[in-house]
Amino acid sequence: SKVLTTFITDYGRFCFKRLPFGISSAPEHYQKRVNQALEGLSGVINHTDDILVWGSTIEEHDERFRAVLRRLAEKGFTLNRDKCAFGVKEVEFLGHRITSEGVFPDLKKIKAIVSMPPPSDVSRVRSFVDMVIYLGRFIPGLATELKPLFDLLKTESEFQWGDEQERAFCRVKEILTTAPMLAHFDKSRATVVSADSSSYGLGAVLRQVGDDGNLHPIAYASRTLSKSEKGYAQIEKEALAMVWACERFEYFILGLPIKVETDHKPLLSIMKSKNVDELSPRLQRIRMRMMRYTYEIFHTPGKELIAADTLSRNPLPETGTGEFDVEVDAQVSLIVQNIPVSDFKLNEIFEAQMSDHICSEVRKYCSTGCPSKEKLEGALKPYHQYRDEIAVADGLVMKGIQLIIPQCMQIEILQKIHTGHLGITKCRSRAKESVSWPGISTQIQQLVDKFPEIARLECQTASCVINYCKSIFARHGIPKEVRSDNGPQFEPLKTIAFQDFARDYGFRHITSSPIYPQSNGFIEAMVKVVKSGMKKNADTAKLLLEYRATPLANGYSPAELLMSRKLRTTLPTAHSNLQPKVVSKEGLNSTEEIRRDNQKRNYDRHHGARKQEELQPGEVVWITDKRTWGPFVQSSSPGFTRR
């Protein structure tokens, strides 16, 4: 850029040959060049033109120092001997006094603060507070002493320096003169991050195990909650404190195994064993942000988590809009996107929640904390056991990913759950995916038990079955196998239409054992369910939609198994529930095998079944039939393959 900075004088036109003072980007360019020059060297760090070289022994120090000198000479750097200090055990660097024992605040900076006169206006108060906050990592609970000064910085406050402010001003000066030492960070030592939250702030402490076996502080941190964060559920605040603490100390802990300490016991299962898709949108986001750290979370009673708890209750104010504020805005935006606001039902539920007394109280407890069960009124007591799962997302009260339905809408939602008339278990599974309220399981049982089971026979011709199969194949593709019973539509002795169809389309046709419907039990049960549903529901398309969206015994709905996603139905649900998710075939096959084995074992025990030898083609067998009595010959014909 020297061409762009050319200047004209009485003696002609000139341009810079070296980077001059006064260029706004000069510090960044200089820092980059020094970083490049020292790249790859051990035991050296720099900030602009301040270079610090260290070693655990004199020999190691000297070796590293010679390497730095050689590298600087190669890159054309010149050192000012008068500004160099060699072989010292204590050094002042970036406002800190670094010794072999640990890190202290710079005495010169403390002296400058101690010698400051009482502020005469808000700007001078802010300057004093900013200088003290710079040293806040050394002093736990510093914000407690600064509170009278913080009050003066509020926009609605009138500047008035009184006795309370004077005492705080003098007390802070006294504390700074006795600031404790912070230990050096050692990546080989066990590291613990303690985090805690209060209704208005977050606090964190980074500690390591020392030679004496005790935990020694490395750094302290605290901050206030934003307006939107104050509305979080308590468990979300605790999770936020944990991820904020890890991100605040990321320079130290990233890539290292650490322990995270919290006094909120429900957080353990949420961050360790609970499935991500079962969490509220905010907790999902926090859980994903924690995935880049190698951590083990454990519980410590609040009375033992003193430092982090104190910092959270006396947080330092945020100065300006930092990177974390941008992250919070992005997180809130993500939550809004996870709820499909275009769905008119969600707006209706929101309005019903706002007008419902119970939902309003639950919403209030999300931000203020839930009292003990004894202090709750009768209708609110059932929510106490879910207090750590309930949160407010985009104005909607939710239990995890389930919408909490107010009383005025519960009957309507129950009717939608039971649209397909699919039985108690399946209706409960459907409800569990999207909605919740106390007693929903019992209400579903009472509703479903009112409907009898009815069956009705439909079309039986081969051409009807073939045409329907063709429409299925056109949507989903041709299967490898088609299984059926031994109805007249499929018997090759009565009609060859279905056999020709199987040959033309290239699939294998397998029939169940003759006169033994149990061998095709799944299809028989399915036919019974569909017939029963069609009898109760004139809308066949909606019946199919509800069945395909209802979880089976393996936990997945037919739509998830076929299309790797859930279907949107008349029940309101979070948008995140409809995102594609591939089903693990290994886990599914294992679950199905266990379920089938248990089912077979129960059936055999109930009916006294005995294991028999495998029949061979041509072997004479006897079977019971209402119309006739054997003997019969086991055929090897492909059309009668037994399964």
Automatic annotation (TrEMBL):
It holds the Pfam family Integrase_H2C2. Residues 1-98 form the Reverse transcriptase domain. Its EC number is 2.7.7.49. This is RNA-directed DNA polymerase. Residues 585-612 are annotated as: Disordered. Residues 461-588 form the Integrase catalytic domain. GO terms for biological process: DNA integration. GO terms for molecular function: endonuclease activity; RNA-directed DNA polymerase activity. InterPro entries: Integrase_cat-core (IPR001584), Integrase_H2C2 (IPR041588), Retrovirus_Pol_polyprotein (IPR050951), RT_dom (IPR000477), RT_RNaseH_2 (IPR041577). Keywords: Endonuclease, Hydrolase, Multifunctional enzyme, Nuclease, Nucleotidyltransferase, RNA-directed DNA polymerase, Transferase. PROSITE patterns: INTEGRASE, RT_POL. Residues 592-612 have a biased composition (Basic and acidic residues). It comes from Allacma fusca.
